[in-house]
C-alpha cells in the first residue's frame, strides 16, 4: 500500500507541512510519494530530497528582516521576481532533476494563457517549485517550455488528483485554507493585519498610516486570496477526495508571516494528532 501526501498551498502557513510530516513519522507513517502545490511544493521537494531537517532549521530561525532580504522587487509581472528565493533554495536544498530525487515528487502549476492545470514531473526541481509558487501579482510568472506558469493554487490548491496519478493508494491531504475565509476582515483582526508585514514594509519606506475606514490593501489582498483558495479547494476536494484531510488552524498567520514558522509547525503536528484515529483506520492492513 503506497501512502501519498498532498501538500496544499497557503503561503506562510505552509510551514505547517513540516509539522505534519514530523508527526506522521513519529506515528510510524512515512510517505512513499509527495505531490505539492505552491508552498506545499517547496516543502514537499525538500522532504523528497531528504532535506527536511535542514529546511526546518532554516525556517525556525527566520526573522522578519530575513524575509525582506529574500525579496527582489520587480516592475513587471509581479511585485517580486522570486530569483533570490529560488537561488537560495537551489544552493541550500534542491538543485536536482526530478529523476534524481530519492522519493517520487511532483508539483502543480497553472498555464497563464489558457488556465490549464500543469503537472510538473520532469527537469529541474527548483524551477518547477518556483513555477508552482508564482502567486499572481506577488511573484512574477515563470516561462517553461514556451508557457507562462503561475501558482498551481489557481486550479488545484490541494493536489489529491496528482497524488493519485503518481500511484498513491491512500492519500493524506493538507488543506491550509479551511479556516481562512472572512478572518482578515473581522474588526478585531483588522488592526493586527495592518500592523503585520505590509505595515512594516510601508514603514520601512517612510510611508505613513492610512486613516481611511476601509480595510488596508494587505487585508483586501489576504481576504481575496483566502476566498479563492477555499472555494477552489472545496470544489476540487469534492471531486477528488482524500482518504484523510488535515486542516491545520492557522487563521492568525498572514500572507507573509514566514518568520512565524514555529507556530505553524506546531499546529501541523496538532492537526495530525487530532486525526490520528482516522489515519490509522485509512492505513490499516
Descriptive overview:
By secondary structure, this protein is of the alpha/beta class. Helix content is 42%, strand content 15%. The protein has 12 helices and 10 strands. Strands 1, 2, 4, 5, 7, 8, 9 and 10 form an 8-stranded mixed β-sheet that branches.
Name some characteristics of this structure.
single chain, 285 residues, alpha/beta, eight-stranded mixed beta sheet, two-stranded parallel ribbon, 12 helices, 42% helix
Topology:
Layout: E1 3-7, H1 16-26, E2 33-37, H2 39-48, H3 52-60, H4 64-69, E3 78-80, H5 83-92, E4 105-111, E5 117-120, H6 125-132, E6 137-139, E7 142-144, E8 147-151, H7 160-165, E9 170-174, H8 187-194, H9 197-204, H10 217-239, E10 244-246, H11 261-274, H12 276-282
Parallel strand pairs: 1-2, 1-9, 2-4, 3-6, 9-10
Antiparallel strand pairs: 4-5, 4-8, 7-8
Helix pairs in contact: 1-11, 2-6
In short:
It is built from 12 helices and 10 strands.
Described by strand count, sense and barrel closure, the largest sheet is: 8 strands, mixed
Helical element count?
12
Based on secondary structure, the structural category is: alpha/beta
The average pLDDT value, as a whole number, equals 83
Weakly predicted, low-confidence segments: 190-194
* Strand content bin: 15-25%
> Which H/E pattern describes the elements?
EHEHHHEHEEHEEEHEHHHEHH
Shape: globular
As a percent range, the share of helical residues equals 40-55%
* Rg (C-alpha, Å): 18 Å
Amino acid at each position: 500500500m503506497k501512502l501519498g501526501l498532498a501538500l496544499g498551498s497557503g503561503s506562510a502557513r505552509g510551514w505547517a507541512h513540516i509539522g505534519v510530516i514530523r508527526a506522521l513519522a513519529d506515528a510510524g507513517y512515512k510517505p512513499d510519494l509527495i505531490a505539492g502545490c505552491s508552498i506545499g511544493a517547496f516543502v514537499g521537494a525538500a522532504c523528497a530530497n531528504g532535506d527536511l531537517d535542514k529546511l526546518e532549521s532554516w525556517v525556525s530561525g527566520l526573522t522578519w528582516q530575513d524575509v525582506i532580504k529574500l525579496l527582489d522587487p520587480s516592475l513587471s509581472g509581479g511585485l517580486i521576481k522570486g530569483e533570490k528565493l529560488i537561488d537560495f533554495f537551489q544552493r541550500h536544498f534542491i538543485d536536482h532533476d526530478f529523476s534524481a530525487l530519492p522519493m517520487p515528487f511532483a508539483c502543480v502549476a497553472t498555464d497563464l494563457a489558457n488556465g490549464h492545470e500543469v503537472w510538473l514531473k520532469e527537469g529541474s526541481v527548483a524551477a518547477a517549485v518556483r513555477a508552482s509558487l508564482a502567486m499572481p501579482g506577488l511573484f512574477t510568472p515563470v516561462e517553461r517550455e514556451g508557457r507562462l506558469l503561475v501558482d498551481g493554487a489557481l486550479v488545484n490548491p490541494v493536489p489529491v488528483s496528482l497524488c493519485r496519478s503518481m500511484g498513491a493508494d491512500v492519500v493524506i491531504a493538507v488543506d491550509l485554507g479551511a479556516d481562512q475565509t472572512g478572518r482578515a476582515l473581522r474588526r478585531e483582526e483588522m488592526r493586527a493585519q495592518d500592523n503585520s508585514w505590509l505595515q512594516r514594509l510601508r514603514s520601512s519606506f517612510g510611508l505613513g498610516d492610512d486613516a481611511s475606514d476601509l480595510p488596508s490593501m494587505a487585508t483586501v489582498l489576504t481576504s481575496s486570496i483566502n476566498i479563492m483558495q477555499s472555494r477552489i479547494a472545496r470544489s476540487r476536494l469534492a471531486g477528488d477526495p482524500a482518504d484523510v484531510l488535515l486542516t491545520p488552524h492557522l487563521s492568525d498567520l498572514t500572507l507573509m508571516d514566514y518568520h512565524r514558522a514555529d507556530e505553524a509547525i506546531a499546529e501541523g503536528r496538532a492537526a495530525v494528532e487530532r486525526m490520528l484515529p482516522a489515519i490509522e483506520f485509512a492505513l490499516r492492513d
